[in-house]
Amino acid sequence: MGSGGRLKSRVGRVLATSVMNQTEDGRLTPAYGRWIAIPSANVISNGWRPESERTAGRTLSRIPMAFAGQAVANAFTEFWPEIR
């Protein structure tokens, strides 16, 4: 596999592991804990947000942003050793 294929594979893994977990044998399975925790944390955080931020639409819009944040953290973990 060329370097372009390897990069594509690594980026795919970064994105996949944002919503999936890797088992000890290397399989990817749904990250149910993350699927529950991220929406729950966003709902709970409404308790200290301004009233304008407590709407259902605002709450729902924060959920994909949290998963995107997970992807950024995964990318940092995956690529930082080579960048450094």
Which descriptors apply to this entry?
84 residues; mainly alpha
Structural topology:
Layout: H1 3-16, E1 20-22, E2 28-30, H2 32-44, H3 56-83
Antiparallel strand pairs: 1-2
Helix pairs in contact: 1-3, 2-3
**Strands of the biggest beta sheet: in what spatial order?**
1-2
Pattern of helices and strands = HEEHH
Question: In percent, how helical is the residue content?
Answer: 55-70%
Shape: elongated
Rg over C-alpha atoms, rounded to the nearest angstrom: 16 Å
State the total count of DSSP E strands: 2
Report the mean per-residue pLDDT as an integer.
93
Question: Which band does the percent of strand residues land in?
Answer: 5-15%
**Separation, N- and C-terminal Cα atoms:** 24 Å
What's the number of helices? 3
Structural class: mainly alpha
How would you sum up the major sheet? 2 strands, antiparallel
Structural account:
There is one protein chain. The chain has helices at residues 3-16, 32-44, 56-83, and strands at residues 20-22, 28-30. It is mainly α and 84 residues long. A hairpin with a 5-residue loop joins β1 and β2 (28-30). α1 (3-16) runs antiparallel to α3 (56-83) and α2 crosses α3 (56-83). The model has no long low-confidence stretch (mean pLDDT 93).
In short:
It is built from three helices and two strands. It has helices spanning 3-16, 32-44, 56-83, and strands spanning 20-22, 28-30.
